[in-house]
Amino acid sequence: MNIFMIFVAIVVLLLIGVAGMYNRLVKLRNLAAEAWSGISVQLKRRFDLIPNLVETVKGYAGHEKATLENVIKLRNSAMSAAPGDVSQQSQTNAALSQGIKGIFALAENYPDLKANQNFIELQKALGTIEDNLQNSRRYYNGCVRDLNTSCETFPSVLIANAFGFEKRDYFELDNPEEAQNVKVSF
């Protein structure tokens, strides 16, 4: 009878451990999904702001049409990227970031544009969105790191494999030049 009770206690403890690991994996998966949603919100805000920025610049730099049309094309490409495809989202948004930098480079050639209150406000708003997007990416990558670690370490790897938990991709820079400091000269 004593051995039977010890056996039952061990089985119960194992079941509690498995349930705990399963619940942790579910929590981490949900945190990663929530973090991805945060990135999506910031990208939507960015996508909504870009047409206003382009229209403001058009008023001053109409003959720079190719640059402005390219930014709209990049925006549309980024918006059409598959919502759950981290790699595609990362690539299209990296290209869009480069296009936006092109608009700000254009502004350097137009002093009236640089002094325009609408342009200044749009530039500030885009800067705030970019900061929020960067924070959202960090949070997402932290959640993905925790989920991936749990999916790869013992003993939770056994639970992850048994219940179909999968590793996720990080939201990374595809272009190492994006990590370089911007050169500012006067």
Radius of gyration: 24 Å
Broad shape: rod-shaped
CA distance, first residue to last residue = 86 Å
Average pLDDT figure: 87
Helix content: over 70%
Stretches where pLDDT is under 50 for at least 5 consecutive residues are 179-186
What is the H/E order?
A: HHHHHH
Topology, number of strands: 0
Total helical elements = 6
Major β-sheet profile: none
Share of residues in strands: under 5%
Could you say which structural class the secondary elements and strand pairing correspond to?
A: mainly alpha
Oligomeric form of this entry?
Answer: single chain
Key descriptive features of the protein:
186 residues; mainly alpha; 6 helices; 78% helix; 0% strand
List strands and helices in order, with pairings.
Blueprint lengths: L1 H59 L4 H16 L5 H22 L3 H5 L1 H36 L3 H8 L23
What report would you give on this structure?
This protein has 186 residues and is an all-alpha fold. The chain has six helices and no strands. Helix 1 runs antiparallel to helix 2, helix 1 packs parallel to helix 3 and helix 1 runs antiparallel to helix 5.
What's this, in brief?
Helices cover 78% and strands 0% of the residues. It has 186 residues and is an all-alpha fold.
